[in-house]
Design a protein that fits this description.
The protein contains 1 helix and 30 strands. It is mainly β and about 350 residues long. Pfam families: WD40.
């Protein structure tokens, strides 16, 4: 990656969301119809916040599950919130009525839940540590299809027509929904260590082909294209690392990549990590556009609102050091960052 184009240092004047969860925050998701933010937490809760034009937020609704909530998402119309977690189930929350309904069931914790809109239908998809992906029609209590994975699901993302799944043992599986949902061959991640997150390319100004980004526990990102003709443009890069001795690469602290969020218009993306930093990247120009250090604790999750003007991020323990790393001084907070043009704007450069 090229040198930094802009860096924001010192105090970050972001807006703190009131009444955050009381335990680690695992997932954030903005509605695609209005500035409503859903959160999932290890305190078993799902909270929904309304974000006003002045960036001030209010908690409008909350419900709980029987275990830690690991993933949340919205439907296309923005009137339903789906959540899933350690209680092995998926729950639908009706924003208008406040009613909850069980809509998915697995044999192990559900790590990811996504609402999928294709040209032909809308379905719910869940990925679990029971090594399956299950497709759900909300009118039926049983899955309409089950796909067996090579290992436990660690991360799942969808951007029509592509769905990508990252599992244990560094397996990556991706599926295209254009011709009857054929399964493409399983590949091994080009990164040498455990996959932490996968994220599909998106953005209305994104001119590159279909593909996805992969983040690992070793502080590396891989940019992967699905078209074999574009694979020559695949590449990896290091980030979220700190030299113990300045400018020395011999002794380096490596931080896991906790989340990757693509801007809905520009196609640029953010990464966040246990080092408390958020970076902005342009994958086509292969450069880091900027970043800031909003917290001393880990950043666990990020998400853009529907027009990309706001980046929400969560500060809490990310469990990368296990139970022993959970200390009392790590906060549980959510912040709203007003995006600057130089952070998110795509560079007009020809991809190598």
């Amino acid at each position: 990656m090229a040198a930094v184009a802009a860096t924001h240092a010192g105090q970050v004047n972001d807006v703190e969301v009131p009444h955050p969860p009381t335990d680690s925050i695992s997932s954030l998701a903005f509605s695609q119809t209005a500035d409503y933010l859903a959160t999932g937490s290890w305190d078993n809760s799902v909270r929904i916040y309304e974000v006003g034009s002045n960036m001030q937020a209010q908690c409008k609704a909350m419900h709980t599950q029987q275990g830690a909530v690991l993933s949340v998402c919205w439907n296309k119309d923005g009137d339903k919130v789906f959540s899933a977690g350690a209680d092995n189930v998926g729950i639908m929350f009706d924003v208008a009525t406040g009613q909850t309904t069980r809509v998915a069931q697995h044999d192990a914790p559900v790590k990811a839940i996504k609402w999928i809109d294709t040209r032909h239908s809308s379905i719910l998809i869940t990925g679990s540590w029971d090594k399956t992906i299950r497709y759900w029609d909300l009118r039926s209590p049983s899955p309409i299809a089950t796909l067996t994975l090579p290992e436990r699901c660690y991360s799942l993302d969808f951007e029509y027509p592509l769905m990508v799944v990252g599992t244990a043992d560094r397996h990556i599986q991706y599926f295209e929904f254009t011709t009857g949902n054929p399964t493409l061959p399983t590949i091994q991640s080009t990164l040498k260590f455990q996959t932490r997150v996968v994220s599909c390319f998106r953005g209305s100004m994104n001119t590159s082909k279909t593909g996805f980004a992969v983040g690992s526990v070793e502080g590396r990102i891989a940019i992967q294209y699905t078209d074999p003709k574009e694979c020559v443009n695949n590449y990896t890069f290091r980030c979220h690392r700190k030299d113990i001795i300045p400018k020395s690469k011999n002794e380096t602290i490596v931080y896991p990549i906790n989340d990757i969020s693509f801007h809905p218009i520009q196609g640029t993306f953010t990464t966040c990590s246990s080092d408390g930093n958020i970076y902005f990247w342009d994958k086509d120009a292969r450069m880091r556009k900027g970043g800031f250090s909003p917290a001393s604790g880990p950043i666990t999750s990020t998400t853009f609102n529907r027009n990309g003007s706001i980046l929400a991020y969560a500060v809490s323990y990310d469990w990368h050091k296990g139970h022993s790393g959970m200390t009392a001084n790590i906060p549980n907070k959510i912040f709203l960052h007003k995006c600057k043009d130089d952070e998110i704007r795509r560079e007009i450069r020809r991809r190598r």
